[in-house]
Amino acid sequence: MTRRFRTVVFAVGAAGVAAFLAWGFAATPKFGHYRGPYGNILQKHGVQERHATNIVNAIVFDYRGIDTIGEEFILFAAVMGVTLLLRRQREERELGPAQERAEERTLLQTSDAVRVASLALIAPTEALGMYVVVHGHLTPGGGFQGGLVLAAAPLFIYLAGRYLVFRTVNPVGILDFGEGLGAGGFVAIGLIGLVSAAAFLQNVWPLGQVRSVFSGGMLPVINLAVGLEVAAGVVLVVYEFLEQTLVVRSRG
Amino acid sequence: MRGGVLPYFLAGWLFLIGLYGVTTSRNFVQLVMCLSVVQSSTYVLILEVGYRVGATAPIYKDVPVGTRAVDPVVQSLVLTDIVVGVVVVALILSLALQIHKRSETVNPDDLHVMEG
């Protein structure tokens, strides 16, 4: 298929899709006039039922909890896929430690300003990430968002030009374990509900005082589990890509 | 703009321009980015469907329950999808990396034969 032919096929298809979209949009409720009903019901009863002020978080990990477990395992499978695809191939070999140091010297000529700023930001980033995770059921945030913030901190180590340190503080074994623990923890919490209340993910823990950190029943614990899984998974992906810079092909 | 359907066309435009990028791309990395643009069009569309004029976020930490807020359901859909989307992009990029290692090219047009 030549490029020209492909572009023509695209143009015809795109025109058709655009026409259908325009037809559909014309009959969609006007922008800014959401009708409900699900959002309205959840807004009305969510806080009272779950003692969580962040309704979005209550939906993600409670009302639509089973669906989120599915998404969580897409994430899990994708991380496993990256690890599997980027593992050392037959014709590849890793550079020895001496060569790595030489490579690091030549590759990472970061300025002192970047290095100092990166090192100074590691602790505040971890603190912010933990805050976003543990307050997930109260304020904007939660396991997914907080996990990504937590995963940013190891990147500062890399930015600071300490790739070898990055390698040593992020051993794959611990990351794998953390990811599995996070994913398994979510399912285990769901099973607690199944065993004690006859429904998967049914909350059986005390709901606590609304607006307090210790409220929302199982929500904060699920946030922690998901935060762990996302953070470990993203660091693992970044680690695998950075490892590629140390892998060279023996042929070519 | 207020109360019309014009904002939905932004989502349609993002979808088609991303798809245009995918069909004409000469580089796998760019192709993956175009795929992300296609994906973002769905976020824009469903967030727009849940929007309500003059409403606040569906978080009742500092405002009383019952305050006019946008739809929380679409927000939770987008939230999980963004995180999962990032990791799926990483998965596709790792495929591109392996193609580059094996065929010394990142141009989809240069790949003709399936290699085992």
Helix and strand arrangement:
The complex is a heterodimer of chains A (252) and B (116).
Chain A: H1 3-27, H2 38-50, H3 55-63, H4 65-85, E1 92-94, H5 97-107, H6 112-134, H7 143-159, H8 163-169, H9 172-197, H10 219-244, E2 247-249
Chain B: H1 6-24, H2 28-49, H3 72-103
Helix pairs in contact in B: 1-2, 2-3
Query: What oligomeric state is this?
Result: heterodimer
**What's the N-to-C terminus distance of chain A?**
30 Å
Order of helices and strands of chain A: HHHHEHHHHHHE
The rough form of chain B would be described as: elongated
Tally of helical segments of chain B: 3
Q: Tell me the distance between the termini of chain B.
A: 54 Å
Number of strands of chain B: 0
Radius of gyration of chain B: 19 Å
What can you tell me about this protein's structure?
The complex is a heterodimer of chains A (252) and B (116). By secondary structure, chain A is mainly α. Chain A has one domain (36-251). Chain A is 71% helix and 2% strand. Chain A contains ten helices and two strands, in the order H-H-H-H-E-H-H-H-H-H-H-E. A two-stranded antiparallel ribbon of chain A has the order 1-2. In chain A, helix 4 packs antiparallel against helix 9 (172-197) and helix 9 (172-197) runs antiparallel to helix 10. Chain B has 116 residues and is an all-alpha fold. Chain B has helices at residues 6-24, 28-49, 72-103. In chain B, helix 1 (6-24) packs antiparallel against helix 2 and helix 2 runs antiparallel to helix 3 (72-103). The longest helix of chain B is centred in the C-terminal third of the chain and has 32 residues, at 72-103. The radius of gyration of chain B is 19 Å and the shape is elongated.
